[in-house]
Amino acid sequence: MIGEPLVGREAQLRQLDEFLDSVPAGPDALAIVGEMGIGKTSLFEVALAVADDRDLRVLTSRPSESEAQFEYAARAGTTTAFPWGDKLDHNYGNFGIAGPGLGGKAEGRDVWVDQTAPVASFPPNPFGLYDMGGGINQWVEDCWHGNYEGAPNDGRPWLEANRGGCNGRVLRGGSWRYDRTAAKCAARDNGEAGGRYVGVGFRVVCSSPINHR
Fold first, then answer.
1. Is the pLDDT of residue 43 over 90?
2. Are 193 and 167 contacting, i.e. CB atoms less than 8 angstroms apart?
3. What is the C-alpha separation between 35 and 45, in angstroms, rounded?
4. DSSP structural state of residue 14
5. Which of 25, 40, 86, 92 is a good FRET partner for 55, with 20 to 30 A between their CA atoms?
């Protein structure tokens, strides 16, 4: 369902390393992740491996939200370009220069240049979710398509291959090095699932024990 709860904070490499070190490796994917090392593989592959380890009850369900879930969660009931309004505001997220080009910018509460801010350095959106815009671009599970023609209408990830392949996956949310257009709730980007990018991470989705009606 689109309304499934999401973990309120995105994963950062240091926190993921600490988490993996703190949990005894089982026979499944967690052991594989430990052998690969965070720096030796893409975060999309790490997210898939972590979510597939059935010993981790807290991390069951999908590695990251679907594209539809992300936009629903990022908007948090609003209809503006950003959850706080129609203008980019560095008091609400870690964003880059106004463009053209890439690069960090310090302004307002956003004092981090050319790097991510610590998780939850900015106010959460109305759903209580942190860093849904800026900070790091977030993988979602959907294969990349240039538009929504033929997309699922129930919030599921769109996993049908596009033109014979699904190596390209959707990225959402913008990052510390992107301008304001990438951080809008409706903005979309994509990357190769096997790639390693300095401005990309993921957010784990957990199933809720609550029955949705």
1. no
2. yes
3. 13
4. H
5. 40
135-174 tens-digit pLDDT: 888 888 899 999 999 999 988 889 988 876 788 899 999 9
Q: Characterise 114 by phi-psi region: left (phi > 0), alpha (psi -120 to 50), beta (else).
A: left
Residue 22 CB contacts under 8 Å (≥ 6 apart), including other chains: none
- Stated as kind and residue range, the H or E segment containing 170 is strand 168-172
Amino acid symbol at 184:
K
Contact 88, 110 (CB under 8 A): no
Decide: 46 and 40 in contact? Cβ < 8 Å: no
Q: 143 by DSSP, 3-state: which?
A: strand
Residue 60 CB-density burial (10 A; 0-12 exposed, 13-18 middle, 19+ buried) = middle
Helix (H, G, I), strand (E, B) or coil at 49: helix
Which residues make Cβ contacts (< 8 Å) with residue 13, sequence separation at least 6? 38, 201
| pTM summary value | 0.74
Please report, as a single letter, which amino acid is at residue 198. V
CATH number, domain 1-213 = 3.90.1580.10
Q: What whole-number distance in Å separates Cα of residue 44 and Cα of residue 175?
A: 16
Quote the radius of gyration of the chain (alpha carbons, Å): 17
Q: Are strands 200-201 and 137-143 parallel, antiparallel or unpaired?
A: parallel
Nearest to 196 by CA among 115, 117, 111, 137: 137
Residues 185-209: tens digit of each pLDDT: 999 999 888 787 878 877 766 655 5
